[in-house]
Design brief:
DNA-binding, alpha+beta, 269 residues, single chain, 4-stranded antiparallel beta sheet
Amino acid sequence: MPELPEVETIVRELKPRLSGKTIENIDVLWPRTVGGDMESFAHILSGKVIRDINRRGKYICFSLDNRLHLTVHLRMTGKFVFNTDEKERNHIRVIFHFNHSSPVYFVDTRKFGRMKLWLPGEELLPHLGPEPLEEKTVYPVLSNLQSRRSIKTLLLDQEILAGIGNIYADEALYKAGIHPLTAGNRVSKIKARALSRALPELLLAAVENKGTTISDYRTTDHSKGENQNYLNVYGRTGQPCYKCGTAIQRIIVNQRGSHFCPRCQRVKK
DNA sequence: CCTTAGTCCTGCATGC
DNA sequence: TGCATGCAGGACTAAG
């Protein structure tokens, strides 16, 4: 579910509440969430202090004692909450217990979320491309795409830019007036510039709105985001484009539903 | 190099 | 109401 803005929102909430806390012990209720070996996972983390919490792409990154790191990917339905209601109690996968404060629960209905430990000296998340939050870092990437894969596919490729998912890819392509099937190596400099401006604008605005809640995404206190009220194409299949009135179309690109305006976003030939 | 299908999972909406 | 199907903010793998 969560993309960069949703993960950033969660990190901003976790940071003040968990920084400086000592992990007392950990309950793993679904071993695959932590890579299978729940005993060593819990053993290594027990007694460690959380020094800092940051975001990289769609990952939450906990910095711990002794240059140890824990990364968490929420995938489709993962969330961190400080309280659980009756319904989500069945979906608790990991519980972090702290000395002298209440635990935090990792809840994940579909069990796709993953946690990984990184030992001292390991390079964290080496496969991720740059953050897409500044035009000056995004433009050099998007103006020089060599691949003939579709621009939608390339935006979802975390090695090219880190943190963009299906919603913001569609929204950015709409804002820049680019058809999702346009080949990467045929995106003009003008369009690359427009897309490089659209991505940071949309992502930062979504962070201000505390993310987009379509169904599962919630912040740590179960609140919804507000950014779903500002979407132009995602989930608006058949509804009129806000610019030209043409019905928004949905096609499958890269196995993912892709929403666009067939008039405002034409394939260039 | 690139695309497609399958996999991991559960729950919800839709249609017959 | 019951049952089948398809769909979902993600990402990895194998096969062609």
